[in-house]
């Protein structure tokens, strides 16, 4: 009887733990006075609804927002809870916790973006729990008020679906000290394609695009900058209908764009140096760039709409390139301060830390290449004003926190 009693107590404790909130993260909705809050439970809540309590005083979370719940299954059932906080004031620090009557989280905080202030964005691809060199430095940068937003440009956790999704759970809990405090924006890489992108669709909440609204491509404005996240895997996976729908949406999105700066991101590289003389020309990658009779190429459209910068990952290294269009580099006097370019600047930033890594010694430099680095790290993109933006590569392996390859882009 004693053993049975202890077993019942253990099962009750485990069940209670499974309805406690975990993997808390926030994201932008595309509206300047909103913030999306997302979290998971591993069990279904019983007869009560999930909510967020929030306020401007950590001891008085006097406002409440009800959340919705999505049940989904990838070998194991999980429950994603989402709500959008509205009518938030720019520059104000909000404290919040999430949960239900069955248990709530610790108190987190975020500062609602002030669209009139300069922006500091950490942009990186290919970050894993294993060899995740950039995780601790990103946590430090978040809590030292050095970055305002994180943008993970595909290949998340390696993999979100591994071990029935438990590795995804571990990754999301590991990055909670980043993602619960600053917006953590994502779109898929090749490691998120499993089972029709099920993990990235159900774990995250990105701005709606009006086409699929499933986190796979999106855009938002932040101050004077228009950010676009694209799904290159529609091309690599030969998803013709989806690629054409995304292209149609992108064309309309860019035609409506009135922002001073336009930053486009995707996972697979359009240009890079590689192990071969002809550079980065994997057919799965070049299809998104050039297109064919079934798939619309992206490069021409992005150039026609005067996109300023294109960032991507996939290759586990760092490389900054000249402005390029159709393979031609538009060089100028100073590679570290480019003025009024006639094509987008390209940056490969896939060295945040995962199972493999490469450096300059592993590739043959192309004519369009400016800088190649073998360090682990992430790109710090700063929108200073209407005439200047800059990027630096933040080292997270050798001289942690050191800024390398400082580059300015000027437009007047």
Automatic annotation (TrEMBL):
- Domain Purple acid phosphatase N-terminal as annotated: residue spans: 21-111
Give the residue range of the signal peptide. 1-17
Describe the location of the Purple acid phosphatase C-terminal domain by residue ranges.
343-399
Listed Pfam families: Metallophos (PF00149), Metallophos_C (PF14008), Pur_ac_phosph_N (PF16656)
Q: What InterPro entries does this protein's entry cite? A: Calcineurin-like_PHP, Metallo-depent_PP-like, MPP_PAP, PAPs_C, PAPs_N, Purple_acid_Pase-like_N
Keywords of the record: Glycoprotein, Hydrolase, Signal
Per the record, what are the reactions this protein catalyses? a phosphate monoester + H2O = an alcohol + phosphate
Reported EC number(s) for this entry are 3.1.3.2
Q: Which SUPFAM superfamilies match?
A: Metallo-dependent phosphatases, Purple acid phosphatase, N-terminal domain
Q: Does the keyword Cytoplasm apply?
A: no
Belongs to which family? Belongs to the metallophosphoesterase superfamily. Purple acid phosphatase family.
PANTHER family to which the protein is assigned, alphabetical: PURPLE ACID PHOSPHATASE (PTHR45867)
Under which name does UniProt file this protein? Purple acid phosphatase
UniProt organism field: Caenorhabditis bovis
């Amino acid at each position: 009887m004693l053993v049975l009693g202890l077993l019942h107590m253990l099962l009750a404790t485990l069940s209670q733990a499974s309805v406690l909130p975990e993997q808390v993260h926030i994201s932008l909705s595309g509206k300047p006075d909103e913030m999306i809050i997302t979290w998971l439970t591993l069990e279904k809540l019983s007869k009560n609804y999930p909510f967020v309590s929030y306020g401007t005083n950590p001891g008085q979370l006097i406002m409440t927002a009800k959340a919705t719940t999505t049940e989904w299954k990838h070998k194991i059932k999980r429950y994603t809870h989402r709500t959008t906080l509205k009518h938030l004031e720019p520059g104000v620090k909000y404290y919040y916790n999430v949960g239900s009557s069955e248990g709530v989280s610790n108190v987190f905080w975020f500062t609602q973006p002030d669209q009139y202030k300069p922006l500091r964005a950490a942009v990186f691809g290919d970050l894993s729990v294993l060899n995740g060199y950039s995780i601790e430095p990103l946590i430090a940068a978040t809590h030292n008020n050095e970055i305002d937003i994180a943008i993970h440009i595909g290949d998340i956790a390696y993999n979100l679906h591994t071990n029935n999704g438990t590795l995804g759970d571990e990754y999301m809990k590991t990055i909670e000290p980043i993602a619960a405090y600053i917006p953590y924006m994502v779109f898929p890489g090749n490691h998120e394609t499993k089972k029709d992108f099920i993990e990235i669709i159900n774990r995250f909440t990105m701005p709606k695009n009006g086409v699929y609204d499933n986190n796979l491509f999106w855009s938002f404005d932040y101050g004077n900058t228009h950010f676009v996240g694209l799904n290159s895997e529609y091309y690599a996976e030969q998803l013709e209908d989806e690629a054409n729908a995304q292209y149609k949406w992108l064309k309309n999105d860019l035609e409506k764009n009135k922002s001073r700066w336009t930053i486009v991101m995707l996972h697979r590289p359009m240009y890079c140096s590689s192990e071969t003389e002809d550079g980065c020309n994997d057919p799965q990658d070049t299809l998104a760039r050039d297109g064919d009779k079934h798939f619309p190429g992206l490069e021409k459209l992005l150039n026609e709409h005067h996109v300023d910068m294109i960032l991507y990952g996939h290759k586990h290294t760092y490389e900054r390139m000249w402005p390029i269009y159709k393979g031609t580099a538009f060089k100028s006097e100073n590679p570290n301060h480019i003025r009024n370019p006639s094509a987008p600047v390209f940056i490969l930033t896939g060295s945040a830390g995962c199972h493999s890594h490469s450096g300059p010694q592993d590739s043959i430099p192309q004519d369009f290449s400016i800088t190649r680095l073998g360090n682990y790290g992430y790109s710090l993109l700063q929108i200073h004003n209407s005439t200047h933006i800059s990027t630096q590569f933040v080292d997270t392996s050798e001289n942690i926190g050191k800024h390398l390859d400082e580059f300015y882009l000027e437009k007047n």
